[in-house]
Amino acid sequence: MGELLQGLDHWHWWILAVVLVILEIFAPGTFFMWMGISAAVVGLLVLVAPSTGWEYQVLIFAILSVSSVLVWRAWFKQSPEQTDQPNLNRRGHQYVGRIFTLEEPILNGTGKVKVDDTIWKIEGTDCEAGSKVEVVGVDNVVLKVELR
Known about the structure:
Layout: H1 2-6, H2 10-26, H3 32-48, H4 54-78, E1 99-101, E2 110-115, E3 118-123, E4 132-139, E5 142-147
């Protein structure tokens, strides 16, 4: 294994970079992309300084990969992506503000409501079937409702 690693040159790092970027395409999450960029940087370093030992190449790759992923995640938390559909993948949140008619009563604070083609568990004050309720919040997969 050591002999194989001693033969690393810039092409190996650039091929690894391409493979990691392709992995990012199939498993998006901006994790593999930063590792791919790190591999490309190490490949450029090896092109400029071909006498760099494989131990240092792997060490630089590891440091660049970890630090770039951590910096990206910190930056992304500070400035999240703006979208015109913030509830796209948050299905329950799409129903906040909508009013539904109960087909079954809410008993002991829980019940069910049919929303489009799905039955949702709801929590709210007890009320009769036929009552109108408004979705005011979401707790995991439970819609919070109030009587209207």
